[in-house]
Q: What sequence folds into this?
């Protein structure tokens, strides 16, 4: 009888550890970068933006423009592009 109690206790401890490990496992966050993340007010000129947040805790800064058909444009010169100013995981 004592062995059965010990086995039950070990089983409960084992399941608690497994549950705790599975809940703290790494998760993936995917940010989809598009012209929808900023407000161009109908303009197609290049603009600088900062403090852009999406799905994850990452914070972005960008110098981009929007084409006439809504596509994102990044020029190869003049410090244009998108950078991550803060990285992060899943939002709580």
A:
């Amino acid at each position: 009888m004592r062995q059965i109690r010990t086995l039950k206790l070990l089983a409960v401890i084992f399941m608690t550890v497994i549950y705790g490990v599975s809940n703290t496992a790494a998760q993936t966050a995917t940010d989809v970068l598009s012209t929808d993340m900023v407000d161009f007010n109908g303009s197609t000129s290049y603009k600088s933006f900062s403090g852009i947040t999406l799905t994850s805790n990452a914070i972005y800064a960008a110098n981009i423009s929007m084409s006439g058909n809504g596509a994102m444009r990044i020029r190869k010169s003049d410090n244009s592009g998108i950078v991550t100013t803060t990285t992060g995981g899943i939002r709580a």
